[in-house]
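ok new one. same drill as before - structure tokens go in, u give me an amino acid for every spot. 429 of them this time. try not to just spam alanines like last time pls lmao
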């Protein structure tokens, strides 16, 4: 996530790393061992580094120090005018100065500082300004429970101060009311600042989570696109290359074949190579296309082109029986028809590789509202067949393809040692 352009304008609690008290993780690792004593805290056994003061923090801390010092001097002057002994006035000044200096740790230990200043302000009016600043810091950095507890103690401290060190110009009731108003004002202001910071943290976390989810969605979409391209490449090129292998093998094992048969096999090899290259160019075009389109104007296979696939396999000397019981193949949905075509193509390719010379049966049935059923079956191979490396990947891709289309696919060996692939795909009415 992009950071702010001016991080020095942010308080340290809003910088990176975030203050755990704003993110709701307060209490994890606090009060355990040395790390809790020095204010660093731990979380899951790891020491959390305290955010350093920003430029804004230095300005604010200096301003509140000066403000508390001014209020302390005014209180000390009032103590002098009230006729207190010089020793008492000196003690007020020293305690007020110590209270103002203690404000520099108001972020590190707000509860402890506020508790000490509550006791100190009950006997030293010069510490009253520092007490108000500490109440504000406590409300900013801690939850409501300690804020309410220290706030009540602050009111009690004000009542004690009004009784022990009364102001001749103000009555006890007026002093108490003024103290309550000031305590409520500072704590309310601090709670408002805390709520705003928590809102900013929540929005920042939501934006970060949204960015992460967008990246995951993009990566997932990219992975799905790659898988789709890989399935298409396997389905198309495997069929073309097996045709090349069959005819090349025929030329290899029958060098004395008639010239017409050799020419026909060479023609099939040439056509299959051209088709494979064309399909490869289309897939590469998809990868290079800047948009979401497939980048190709070549028509995609459908259920109506299934007969052309069977005819192409028969030209490769395969024995294929097509039983197409669909009355109007052209009316089938394009995606469903293309999936049926790919399933039949993969079945013929597997039969050509693993059971050459056997008769393959391709049966297609169904209609609108019933769905389409395609069944490709071949008997056991004739003799020993050389194992082809990488077998089984096409069936995995077909299963995924059928599942994505809302259908199902099953495959396996038959009782007579053959193999069958059977799939059902939806066809809405």
């Amino acid at each position: 996530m992009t950071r702010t352009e001016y991080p020095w304008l942010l308080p340290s609690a809003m910088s990176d790393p975030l203050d755990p008290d704003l993110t709701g993780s307060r209490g994890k690792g606090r009060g355990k061992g040395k790390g809790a004593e020095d204010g660093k805290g731990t979380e899951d056994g790891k020491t959390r580094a305290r955010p350093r003061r920003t430029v804004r923090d230095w300005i604010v801390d200096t301003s509140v120090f000066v403000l508390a010092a001014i209020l302390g001097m005014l209180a000390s002057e009032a103590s002098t005018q009230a006729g207190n002994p010089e020793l008492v006035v000196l003690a007020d000044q020293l305690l007020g100065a110590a209270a103002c200096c203690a404000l520099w740790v108001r972020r590190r230990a707000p509860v402890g500082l506020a508790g000490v200043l509550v006791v100190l302000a009950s006997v030293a009016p010069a510490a009253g300004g520092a007490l108000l600043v500490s109440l504000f810091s406590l409300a900013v950095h801690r939850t409501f429970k300690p804020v309410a507890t220290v706030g009540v103690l602050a009111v009690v401290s004000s009542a004690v101060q009004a009784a022990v060190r009364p102001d001749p110009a103000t009555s006890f009731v007026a002093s108490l009311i003024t103290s309550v108003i000031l305590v409520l004002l500072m704590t309310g202001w601090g709670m408002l600042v805390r709520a705003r910071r928590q809102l900013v943290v929540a929005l920042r976390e939501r934006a970060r989570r949204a960015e992460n989810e967008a990246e995951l969605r993009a990566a997932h979409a990219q992975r799905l696109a790659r898988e789709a391209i890989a399935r298409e490449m396997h389905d198309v090129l495997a069929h073309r290359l097996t045709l090349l292998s069959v005819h090349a093998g025929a030329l290899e094992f029958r060098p004395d074949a008639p010239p017409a048969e050799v020419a026909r096999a060479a023609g099939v090899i040439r056509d299959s190579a051209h088709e494979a290259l064309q399909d490869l160019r289309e897939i590469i075009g998809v990868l290079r296309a800047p948009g979401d389109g497939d980048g190709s104007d070549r028509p995609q296979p459908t259920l109506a082109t299934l007969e052309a696939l069977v005819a192409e396999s028969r030209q490769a000397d395969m024995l294929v029986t097509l039983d197409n019981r669909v009355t109007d193949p052209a009316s089938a949905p394009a995606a469903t028809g293309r999936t049926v075509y790919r399933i039949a193509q993969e079945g013929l390719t597997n039969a050509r590789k693993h059971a050459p010379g056997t008769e393959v049966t391709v049966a297609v049935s169904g209609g609108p509202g019933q769905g389409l059923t395609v069944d490709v079956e071949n008997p056991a191979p004739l003799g020993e067949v050389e194992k082809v490396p990488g077998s089984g990947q096409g069936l995995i891709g077909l299963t995924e393809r059928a599942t994505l289309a809302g259908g199902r696919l099953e495959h396996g060996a038959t009782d007579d040692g053959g193999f069958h692939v059977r799939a059902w795909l939806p066809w809405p009415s």
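The first helix runs from residue 20 to 23. and btw Residues 366 and 372 are 5 Å apart (CA to CA).
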